Amino acid sequence: MIWLVLAIAIVALIVIMMMRKEEERRKYFESRGIKADKPRFFIVILYKFLTKQMGIVELLEGMYYEYPEENKVVGFWDGDTPIIMMKDPDVVKRFAVKEFEHFQDRRNFISEEMDPLFGNSLFLLKDQKWRDMRATLSPAFTGSKMRLMCDLIVEIGVQMVEFLQKEAKDKGPQTYEMKELFSRVSNDVIATCAFGINVDSLKHKSNDFYLTAKVLSDFNSVGKILRMTFSQYFPKISNAIGLKFNPDKDTNFFRSLVTDAMKYREQQNIVRPDMIHLLMEAKKGKLNHAKTEKDTAGFATVDESVQWKRSDRNWSEKEIVAQCFLFLLAGFETVSASLSFAAYEICANPEVQEKLYEEIKTVDEDLQGDRINYETLSKMKYLDMVISESLRKYPPATIAERQCNKDITLELFEGMPYDFKKKDGLWIPIYSLQRDPKYFPNPEKFDPERFSDENKSSINPNAYIPFGVGPRNCVGSRFALMELKTLVYYMVLNFSLEVTEQTQIPLQLGKTFGSLNSEKGIHIRLRPRN
Question: Which of 153, 367, 402, 474 could form a disulfide with 103 if both were Cys (CB 3.0 to 4.6 A apart)?
Fold first, then answer.
């Protein structure tokens, strides 16, 4: 009995200490004139994440709408780090663009020791090394380079259609879970465009490339959430015990694919218009750093706000491989999720599907048997409107974060100075901004007309940021848009997307830690049009 009483007393003491610490943290912000998020015990939040009682969307929305509209920022603590969440687009622009030199880096939630490939990727690099890598890679993602890779994506789109048409011919119109379907198709795009190999994951469902990519791209598994959390709060212990984010056998699989391909191409003098070739050229310093091209990829593309200058840094093989690895992570999960959400909205809104089909059919007739190309895709206005609206409702990343690089006092907004300490954080709540009725009236409605020529000028560019904002935006936004448009084009051209008894309407989002996913899957019947 005495042990039970002692245990209860200890737990009570811990809770009291935590409550006092949370109150001190609240006062930290409020003494500076900033509203603070209500106390949230870290262990409780982690438990809710792991048990799917809460996801990143619920956490974001809870903080975003906790205080009245006049509050442009809200403060909260992530462990021992104070974070400012920016609720106002002008504040976002101030810190992501105008004050970028002080908030260039992301917080390091996966170290190079924990994952050599991810840790060396453009996503997590810091300081001058990030600038040099960004300058090295930017020429690889211009419109002219995308044109070269478009044919590779079109080939995968045609391959997808042939498979689905054969299934419908043999079995009748089939119902597919779209995330599963598009994860296989986007996997094949990555395989051909980033790794230079052909993998038909619809026919060969258990191929090594797909199965390994699926493991590496899953950021919602309990094991990965725990490892990320532990490494963030206890980095020294993580390094000491050799904690790994991904299994060595899986990362070594992709490392060998890239290094073997590079060696073979150099020996045989092979040139193929894919990412490996571009990275090999970048490694040699042969990519041209021309003036920024006039972008035609679509409304959602991020314009370069910096004129990058060629870096003289010599990149190691490991650092080059890491960029292919990032391409895998970004392309597998986020692109397949974006495609599945777009398919859902096209299916759930018959008038949108009909208007989109009419545009696609007209373009197909004008091509007179030729395949779609980059220039033609870029001219399809309604397709761009549909993709832009889908990315508004379901952005590939729910938040963007930045880290202060030195002690400095800056105005959060006019009349509100704030003392930043080195490693203090910023959060940009992309999901919440893009669903805020102040910036997008009736935000739950899927309305591509928001992005028509007549209406898109009224959109606040700092509230619509599906690929990030400022110099640290997504370097691959043109590629992502090209892939999304190509695969939607071929899907809608050849199939009518139909609701079934399994289709969840309205769609509910799952409680995920990473990128957005549906609660019960997105089940759609594909009926061949011919």
Answer: 402
